[in-house]
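Notes for week 9. Today we move from apo structures to complexes. The key idea is that a small molecule is not decoration. When we ask for a structure prediction with nicotinamide-adenine-dinucleotide present, the ligand SMILES becomes part of the input, just like the chain. The input block below holds both the sequence and the ligand string. Read it once before you look at the output, and try to guess where the molecule might sit.
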Amino acid sequence: MSEREGAAESAHAVIGAGRVAVVTGAASGIGCALAEAFVAVGSAVVLADLDGREAEAVAERLRLNGAAALAVTVDVSDPASVERLAKVTLDRFGRVDVLCNNAGVSTFNLIQDQTLDDWRWVFNVNMWGVVHGLASFLPILRGQSTPSHIVNTASMGGLMSGVPFIGPYAASKTAVVSISETLRQECAAYGLPIGVSVLCPSATDTRVMESERGRPVALGAECRTDDAEAMRLAIKSMFTGPDGSTPAHVAMRTLKAILAGEFWIIPNSGERPIVEARFTEALASFPQ
Ligand SMILES: NC(=O)c1ccc[n+]([C@@H]2O[C@H](COP(=O)([O-])OP(=O)(O)OC[C@H]3O[C@@H](n4cnc5c(N)ncnc54)[C@H](O)[C@@H]3O)[C@@H](O)[C@H]2O)c1
């Protein structure tokens, strides 16, 4: 039995045959791998992405392998678009068992060179995208009497917090960690059968380093300094090199966490010393 089949065998009711997973940012990278992992254990999947054509190409490939897969063109920064996603999902599948608020983007510049529109775009997608997902889907999950699960994709950047050249990204991902922690506490306090996880990947071989492909024209083009572009290329080569993780690994780790009801999903160990140093410094600053 494969690792994936083993995970399915012990399945918590939220994934498997007859269950429905909604994944934003599913046309590429981690979202695409999540969609593949959900259908591999028998769930139906809704692939939501700004790039509707690529989402449809992935969905078509999954359908050819016998999966129930629906592609929906969605801009997570637009609450009406996410509300439509929820409606289309219910119209087609009648329920939602797992929501992965996964779509995300980044700019690359020192804070002094990030424009207000850079900040707006990154927060509109990374933070407001998660908030819109919760606003549209929490009422559905609460209305179902069955267990469900929400996975918000943050980043190791949200735990390291201070990350040169990706200030808006790190700040938005820190917000996603915080939103997830609050949601987890509130669901527990009110006895809601809604599990919550926050996914904090690092260095995964995806197209996140080419995020600008989905930037709205109205927010202008990104204008990186030479230093920032050099850093972007250096990070990109790290993601695709031997130290980089694969989207499939991140997705597998995520499904296991859903099954186990784990809050923190940290697929890679590399940045542990940085996170430790951050919290050690903060703890040492408490008055004796
Ligand atoms: N790749 C990494 O190393 C890494 C590390 C930490 C966190 N993450 C996070 O993982 C998530 C997935 O990113 P990825 O690495 O797979 O990158 P990716 O660029 O391969 O995939 C992101 C997807 O999000 C979609 N998207 C962008 N803006 C959108 C919008 N407004 N509405 C709907 N969809 C939109 C894109 O079209 C794309 O298909 C992101 O939240 C990212 O921040 C990635």
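Strands lie at 20-24, 44-49, 69-73, 98-101, 148-153, 194-199, 264-265.
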